[in-house]
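RECORD TYPE: inverse folding
INPUT: structure tokens
STRUCTURE:
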């Protein structure tokens, strides 16, 4: 936006300069033309008239007694020439003022442009350094992420191996306990049998068998009595 404003401002100044220069050129042309006309008018008024001097000899004018007055037709071109000279001087002064303003504007704008270019260069260098740092940080993050992924995979594998080992140890422990109990019971039974002897063991087995038979007879008797009571 500022660049466009500066461009428009300078274009306006240059346009004013061109207009003033064209005006000066026109006034210089008019001034030269007016000067030429005034010179021609003066030369024509000052030339002697041979015809009038021959026929009108008694009409002699004493120039010393009468004041010198310029001819009427010479006044208008001279005033116009003076007016053109004044306008020409004013236009040249305006052109000089515009030139000074343009020089000051160019100097100020050059300083601003130099400052902006320096800032732009600093920003470019800063952006380059920042981009390099961002690239380095991104590379470091990628390395860290890769290492974390490897560590997580190793931990997961170690966890699985530990769980499998715990399961295997638990199974082995249970099996060992079961085998130990079985061996203990077997040893205990063998010890009881060896301490009791075969005869005592047979006697106890017979007594136990008799008890089972008696219990079966009682159960049958109770069932029979129950059926009879239901029939009556």
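DESIGNED SEQUENCE:
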């Amino acid at each position: 936006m500022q660049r466009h404003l500066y461009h428009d401002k300078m274009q306006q100044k240059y346009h004013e300069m061109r207009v003033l220069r064209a005006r000066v050129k026109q006034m210089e042309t008019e001034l030269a033309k007016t000067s030429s006309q005034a010179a021609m008018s003066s030369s024509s008024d000052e030339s002697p008239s041979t015809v009038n001097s021959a026929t009108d000899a008694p009409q002699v004018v004493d120039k010393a007694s009468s004041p010198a007055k310029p001819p009427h037709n010479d006044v208008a071109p001279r005033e116009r020439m003076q007016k053109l000279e004044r306008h020409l001087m004013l236009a040249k002064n305006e052109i000089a003022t515009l030139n000074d303003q343009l020089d000051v504007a160019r100097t100020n704008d050059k300083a601003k442009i130099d400052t902006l270019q320096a800032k732009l260069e600093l920003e470019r260098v800063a952006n380059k350094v920042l981009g390099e740092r961002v690239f380095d940080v991104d590379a470091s993050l990628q390395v860290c992420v890769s290492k974390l992924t490897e560590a997580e995979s190793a931990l997961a594998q170690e966890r699985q191996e530990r769980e499998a080992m715990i399961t295997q140890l638990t199974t082995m422990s249970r099996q060992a306990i079961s085998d130990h109990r079985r061996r203990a019971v077997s040893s205990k039974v063998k010890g009881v049998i060896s301490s009791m002897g075969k005869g005592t063991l047979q006697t106890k087995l017979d007594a136990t068998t008799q008890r089972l038979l008696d219990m079966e007879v009682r159960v049958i008797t109770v069932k029979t009595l129950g059926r009879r009571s239901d029939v009556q």
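NOTES: Residues 48-72 have pLDDT under 50 and may be disordered.
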